[in-house]
Write a structure and sequence with these properties.
about 30% helix; Dihydrolipoyl dehydrogenase; flavoprotein; about 475 residues; FAD/NAD(P)-binding domain; 5-stranded mixed barrel
Length: about 475
């Protein structure tokens, strides 16, 4: 007889495991199915984020930043380092340990919340009495039935046509985290979040990095003023970014990869590199879900079709995270997971897409929430802008990192904050104040009147809010 559950979550990534935990907290009998494996073949909960995404990339970004600081910046602090050496094996092992700690943390949370875990790949079989029957293909095949199904199967890296990932020469985000030796020359196709973060890691460790971007503008989704400031910093660091390129044939061989492309001037270029990272976006992971068995609707991209509440076309079947519409962000998936669990319980779960923060963990970091200046101009909304540079911030000077600025955009009449954009040190942390402010419909004046600790980087946020009314105190 099939095992019965109130809620079955397919996928143990940020959206899935959080949905399972919240559902269990609400008193449901919950199961979660996930197929990720560690090196030993055991479960590796946490999805793409924990295993080959957010967590390992941040571990390598931190390690590589330490290495660059020791080699180039410690001397400014009166610290002289002699005989600096890179132990890449140990750096990668530390990254793997950080991943394992997160894997184990999710497994512990499942035990704590009495969630039944199945290690394998789940697929729909049929609608059944009491809900839907799923097949779990793992070490042993099992049939389970859930009254409510939450699909949280995430996304996969998009391959370039004619250049499939081999994770040796042509790398996805997965292979980019496992390069065994620092390449002399590295190319990246795509200057999005993954491309810039991975390019930063390997540049700091000694690679000559070229980023090829098809669009004519750099970071088109970012506020233009912030994007220009970021590119200026990346150019200074030696990250070569070519915009408006058209990539042609890619040849992979024993000696590396040859990338043929046409640059923005229309000139043909042949680039030989040791490794190529392709980061041109991600596609929803619905292959093998057997959605057709129950009539689950997918769109033309292969994503699951949902309404504003994450309901699919089937009763009691929900979908969240990268496998549905909206930004492919781990924290967006988490919020949807909580909201869906609460909706199943008859509560009113809520996700505000207008206050979801975005972060690129380069150095300088880039973070933003709300609308950009170009978006406000396009919709014809009257607004005021205020900026404040980290160059005039005492804490940034003490850190030795004064790159960048904070920018506020507020309604010209009501002063409501419409967007906050940052590039500079630790802005991944500073952006939360802006998210809270916007969630509570705060005005720029509200932030300008709040006391901020001195000296702190957060004072740049206050000063940018003051700049809306041309009242900065330190610039």
């Amino acid at each position: 007889m099939s095992k019965q559950f109130d809620v079955i979550v397919i996928g143990g990534g940020p959206g899935g495991y959080i949905a399972a935990i919240r559902a269990a907290q609400l008193g449901f009998n919950v199961a979660c199915v996930d197929e990720w494996k560690n090196a030993a073949g055991g479960p590796a909960l946490g999805g793409t984020c924990t295993n080959v995404g957010c967590i390992p990339s941040k571990a390598l970004l931190q390690s590589s930043e330490h290495f660059e600081h020791a080699g180039k910046h410690f001397v400014d602090h009166g610290i002289n380092v002699k005989g600096l050496e890179l132990d890449l094996g140990k750096m990668l092992a530390r990254k793997d340990q950080v991943v394992k700690q997160n894997n184990d943390g999710v497994a512990y949370l499942f035990k704590k919340n009495k969630i039944t875990f199945f290690h394998g790949r789940a697929s729909f079989v049929k609608a059944a009495d009491g809900g839907y029957e799923l097949k779990v293909a793992g070490a042993a095949e099992e049939a389970i039935v859930g009254k409510h199904i939450i699909v949280a199967t995430g996304s996969n890296a998009r391959a370039l046509p004619g250049a499939p990932f081999d994770e040796e020469n042509i790398l996805s985000n997965d292979g980019a985290l496992r390069v065994g030796a620092v390449p002399k020359k590295l190319a990246l196709i795509g200057s999005g979040v993954i491309g810039l973060e991975m390019g930063s890691v390997w540049r700091r460790l000694g690679a000559e990095v070229t980023v090829l971007e098809g669009l004519p503008t750099f970071l088109g989704a970012v506020d233009e003023q912030i994007a220009k400031e970021a590119k200026k910093a990346f150019d200074k660091q030696g990250l070569k970014i070519e915009l408006g390129v058209k990539v042609g044939e890619i040849k992979s061989g024993k000696k590396g990869v040859n990338v043929a492309y046409t640059n923005a001037k229309g000139e043909a270029v042949s680039l030989d590199v040791d490794k190529l990272i392709v980061s041109i976006g991600r596609v929803p992971n619905t292959v093998g879900l057997n959605a057709e068995a129950v009539g689950l609707a997918l769109d033309e991209r292969g994503a699951i079709t949902v309404d504003g509440d994450c309901k699919t076309n089937l009763p009691n079947v929900w979908a969240i995270g990268d496998v549905v519409r909206g930004p492919m962000l781990a924290h967006k998936a988490e919020e949807e997971g909580v909201a869906v669990a609460e909706r199943i319980a008859g509560q009113h779960g809520h996700v505000n897409f207008n206050t979801i923060p975005w972060v690129i963990y380069t150095s300088p970091e880039i973070a933003w929430v709300g609308q950009t200046e170009q978006q406000l101009k396009a919709e014809g909304r009257a607004y005021k802008a205020g900026t404040f540079p980290f160059l005039a911030n005492g804490r940034a000077r003490a850190l030795g990192d004064t790159t960048g600025m904070v920018k506020f955009l507020a309604d010209a009449t009501t002063d409501e904050i419409l967007g906050v954009h940052m590039v500079g040190p630790q802005v991944s942390e500073l952006i939360s104040e802006a998210v809270v402010a916007m969630e509570f419909k705060a005005s720029a004046e509200d932030i300008a009147r709040i006391c901020h600790a001195h000296p702190s980087l957060s004072e740049a946020t206050k000063e940018a809010a003051l700049a809306i009314d041309k009242r900065t105190l330190n610039f």
